Amino acid sequence: MGSSEDAVEIERARILAAIDAGAAEAIALSRWMADHPELALEEREASARYVSWLEARGFSLEREVGGMETGFLARRGAHETGLHVVLLAEMDALPGIGHACGHNLSGPASLLAASALAAALPKDALHLVVAGAPAEEIGVGKRRLVEAGVFRNADVALMAHASDMRRAHRLFLGNHKLELVFHGRASHAAAYPEDGINALDGVIALFVSIGLLRQQLPRSARVHGIVTDGGRAPNVIPERAAARVWVRALDDAVLDATTERVLACARGAAEATGTRLEASRGEAESPALRPNLALAGVYRRQLARLGLAESGHAPDASIGSSDITHVSQVVPTIHPNFPIHRPGQKLELHTRAFAEATTTPEGEAGLLEAARALALTVHELVRSPVARSEVAREHEATR
Description:
Blueprint: H1 3-35, H2 44-55, E1 60-63, E2 72-76, E3 83-90, H3 103-120, E4 126-133, H4 141-147, E5 156-158, E6 161-163, E7 174-183, H5 199-213, E8 222-229, E9 240-249, H6 252-273, E10 276-281, H7 293-305, H8 324-328, E11 333-334, E12 337-339, H9 352-357, H10 361-383, H11 385-397
Parallel strand pairs: 3-4, 3-5, 5-11, 6-12
Antiparallel strand pairs: 1-2, 2-4, 7-9, 7-10, 8-9
């Protein structure tokens, strides 16, 4: 082995040793988060603890990034030198069921990876940024970070997410969120039904139309919704009724086309029932993920280096949507899965069982796996111009 290869191996060993040294503190932070879950945009104490962790390790801090009280950037290394990497650190929990998405594992994993890289690499080798990413569960945090220019000069952005599977490459569905309100005219449902215009009929006709539409949708498209207002009393014909409908797809063109077809269903329902339709969309939408297989390949090599086999799940198996896809539009991005293995137990995200599993030894092992694989991925990019070039070339080719 040549001297340069020896130096790379020595750095790699230092990174892994630093992760081992910081493991207990990262696990303690993860457990604290599990015991003190904070909702989207209210992650004040989690954000403060993230900031304290990074400040203690020599990172400079910028707070309230993206107009969010709990958003932050922690930097180490000169802007002008080295690879520019952003590690994303999520922090929010779910209403009622706490950290059932495992952000109490993925956030500390990014912090632990960042601190290990800072300890093992010289400052001029890497411009490392940890981005405190609030509000993933409502889909706005990373979009606001993108709009604030956080990733403008970055070479890569990455994080890892807890799951019941291990895969270096996974996809996300783009998501359009429709608020559909039907306006009618109230009347007494028994005495003067002929004088009313039933807004609820518009909502019912909408869901019937969507049910018929599903047969003709592409395999990658999803449409699901709920009734958010169905009237106030059975003896009053509803003058207002509303539905919230989400449209998802793996391809943005399919997403746009399917959204237009759902809106056509809504317009047709209004026309058929004599109601007036009011349609709107909110901030918390996301495009489909723009994948970078070269970057996922770098992460996969670290799994192999660590002796970890992927679970064999397809990239589009058991996927939803995330605001990480906004990041993928502007910089090469990966969002791999690390597993929580519970013998004899099937775990699914957004359940109480998953929240409980994050505090087990298996959940803690997943946190450390993610920190190691993320840190080693960044290290390979720092020391391999070929890997960096492949990642950048793929991103440009898919622009």
